[in-house]
Amino acid sequence: MSSSLKDVAARAGVSARTVSNVVNGSARVAPETRRRVQEAIEELGYRPNLAARSLRAGRTGIVGLAIPELHSPYFAELAGLLVDEARRRSWTVVIDQTRGDAEAERRLLTGDGGRVMDGLIISPWALPAEDITAAARPLPVVLLGERSPQGLADRVAVDNVAAAEEATAHLLSLGRRRVAAIGLQPHLRNGTAELRAEGYRAALRRAGITPRPEWERPVPALHRADGARAMAELLDTGAEPDAVFAFSDELALGALHTAHVRGLRVPEDVAVVGFDDIEDGRFGRPTLTTVSPDKGQIAARALQCLADRVYSPRNDVPAADLTVPHRLVVRASTGG
Amino acid sequence: MSSSLKDVAARAGVSARTVSNVVNGSARVAPETRRRVQEAIEELGYRPNLAARSLRAGRTGIVGLAIPELHSPYFAELAGLLVDEARRRSWTVVIDQTRGDAEAERRLLTGDGGRVMDGLIISPWALPAEDITAAARPLPVVLLGERSPQGLADRVAVDNVAAAEEATAHLLSLGRRRVAAIGLQPHLRNGTAELRAEGYRAALRRAGITPRPEWERPVPALHRADGARAMAELLDTGAEPDAVFAFSDELALGALHTAHVRGLRVPEDVAVVGFDDIEDGRFGRPTLTTVSPDKGQIAARALQCLADRVYSPRNDVPAADLTVPHRLVVRASTGG
DNA sequence: TTGAAAGCGCTAACAC
DNA sequence: GTGTTAGCGCTTTCAA
């Protein structure tokens, strides 16, 4: 077994209190005493036990991150930024995947995990915000990209409606008129896809085009394969789109794949815009036009929100609703 | 503050012991008593404090995963599988990114993190195995894809030499003779790139071809941009390769990008093979031939190793050295 | 400046 | 089947 603070104290001929002071640099300690203690620590290979420290402090220094899939480039990139940002604050991140499963999201909150974390950053998928915050209570929660929590919890997201509108307007500005949308998820409760659909339709209407149901393709998930399938359906049902707005880059890349297989030229025959700005899109063929959310800011702000709540003595700070900037990055898939 | 086991006991009119039994389902409890306790738990919203439980048990139920970058598709996918596998064992995973920084790798082991984890799975980058296991002691460590730990720690990896040899042999079997390699990393200490280079050269020699230094391109990192640059250098220096073996799919995708920009046809002018079998490769243009390691098995075995050590009373179990299967997946980039 | 000791919330050995 | 209690390793109040 490894040695404890008591062992160090005994070895250095001082009390536990003094060792604790040395380790934390808290109170003033006589230089000679400090030296002796340091020496004992070294010799015994002592390392403080975090469980004990957490028990005392009532905090664990661990913040949870719950995302649908680590596997997805967008979430992986975001998770990476969050981990970096957390380290800057001396926090550790535990990552959980919900795999788009409502039960998994709930279990995450009610299960053991709920007690080991000081707070949770969650990108909801299957559950609506109300359920999540209710299940988490009293754990501080930050929602990523969720619709209308109505002051239930802090929230950080891009303006999905505006971003989708811009993306669609860009396609229309190229003279395209039959603009399809890939990525609706009517079976989900998180609302993100619905917001993007709203923006898409708004842009069409503003250009004097009536949105048509056959232009809107739902998908079961957001993988390349789903985008490829949706694109194939779009072509098979005779919608004859001359442009496609995919609600994620992965879907867009799948759509590009199908377009290529079917002998369509991009952007000449079909222009394509994605959402997320993942690295694959920058090196795909053709390179992908996309909506780029400021992921660094999402990470920074989410952790700031959490820090405010965990360290704040007051419980009644109103829920923040932060909108993070985005920009349209035009590349080859729309002739950029 | 949230309520403790004692509060529940008081409310249910039983002792702490009984509540503990109910929570853990350990000893037998009278049905009526159980009901009362459950009710009290419900009413108070009681949740066990994991810090206290850890302190008691001497274990935290947390296993660390240290990878160079979450951002990279290969590691993201692997991390996802490890998280799933960990959940199956009721373990929580904390993920740390080393960003290829030796100092970060060391700090991870000597810092606070070392005390909160029951064990660590690490994909080393900058530090050699000896340093890692030394710094981690007495924390159980599993190395992923590292060269020759010589019994220092458990290790799980594919047979890099054999896999690289197969990939190269595949290119040679297509009649290619000027087979280049992208992805050497002489500045790193983890050895993986060197093993793949060995396999690459061995295959060339077996085909009666003398490996040439100008065919081997080093890279600072394994991103698409590095692959793109390496490919450009290869073309600019007049090596005139008719095939390229990239040590990772990301590098390969970057190389494909450059080939396209330079007007080279793949596979007609240059055939390309990658390594990792990430999802992007399956939907790229052209689709990418690659070496596919069994990632599920890497995840499962790594956790099995850790479980054996954490739960094993004996300290002298010899270090395991597990080789995970791989297979060559032939796709369009080599005419498959 | 340092020591003694209480107690964070939980589990389990020991009683009954 | 249930109660009592010691103690995991640490921080911190109170004394000295």
From TrEMBL, chains A, B:
Domain of life: Bacteria
Ranges of residues in domain HTH lacI-type: 3-57
GO MF annotation: an example: transcription cis-regulatory region binding
UniProt keyword terms in alphabetical order: DNA-binding, Transcription, Transcription regulation
PANTHER family named among the record's database cross-references: LACI-RELATED TRANSCRIPTIONAL REPRESSOR, LACTOSE OPERON REPRESSOR
Protein name, UniProt field: LacI family transcriptional regulator
Native source species: Actinospica acidiphila
